[in-house]
């Protein structure tokens, strides 16, 4: 009878450990999902900012090109 009680006690102990591990895994999964989502947003924001900077550089280049002195055509 003592062996059976010891086995049940041990089984309860390991079951509790498994439940705790499962909770921790779920929590870690949620955290990693949130971090991945945040990283994706940051990456998209940086790409958007880089695209805007490149477009601004192109606009400035075109403006400078238009403002450069051009020799007058002689007839």
Automatic annotation (TrEMBL):
Coiled coil: none annotated. Residues 46-75 are annotated as: Disordered. Residues 46-67 have a biased composition (Basic and acidic residues). It holds the Pfam family Snapin_Pallidin. GO terms for cellular component: BLOC-1 complex; transport vesicle. InterPro entries: Snapin/Pallidin/Snn1. This is Biosis of lysosomal organelles complex 1 subunit 6.
């Amino acid at each position: 009878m003592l062996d059976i009680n010891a086995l049940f006690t041990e089984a309860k102990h390991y079951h509790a450990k498994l439940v705790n591990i499962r909770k921790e895994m779920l929590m870690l999964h949620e955290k990693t999902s949130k971090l991945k989502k945040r990283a994706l947003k940051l990456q998209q924001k940086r790409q958007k900012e880089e695209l805007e900077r490149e477009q601004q550089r192109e606009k400035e280049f075109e403006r400078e090109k238009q403002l450069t002195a051009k020799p007058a055509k002689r007839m």
